[in-house]
Amino acid sequence: MSNAVDGSSPPPAPAGTQTGGIRLHKEDGAALWAFGATETRVRVVE
After folding, report:
1. Is this structure's pTM higher than 0.70?
2. Cα separations (Å) of 13 from 16, 17, 18, 31, 37?
3. Measured distance CA(24)–CA(36) in Å, rounded
4. Which domain of life is it from (predicted)?
5. CA 17 to centroid of chain Cα atoms
6. Which residues of 7-19 are buried (b: 16+ CB within 10 A; e: fewer)?
7. Is the dihedral of CA 26, 31, 23, 46 positive or negative?
8. More confident residue, 9 or 34
9. Domain coordinates of the chain in residue numbers?
10. pLDDT, tens digit, 9 for 90 and up, residues 15-37
11. Side-chain half-sphere CA neighbours of 17 within 13 A
């Protein structure tokens, strides 16, 4: 994930809100974006 350096990022989510991020290799990230549109729910399985 990234954060805007000019301060334009939104405030953090309220405490208790479930948020998450996914770390992927570049090729896997490209495949994920090709697969799912914004707001597509993704389940991460280890």
Report:
1. no
2. 8, 6, 9, 28, 22
3. 15
4. Bacteria
5. 14
6. eeeeeeeeeeeee
7. negative
8. 34
9. 19-46
10. 888 877 777 888 988 888 887 77
11. 7
Q: How many residues does the chain have?
A: 46
| Helices of type H across 1-46 | 26-35
Scan for tokens 């549109």, then name that residue. Answer: 37
pLDDT of residue 1: 52
Percent with pLDDT over 70 in the chain: 91
How many Cα neighbours within 13 Å face the side chain of 26?
A: 0
Structure tokens at 41: 């729910």
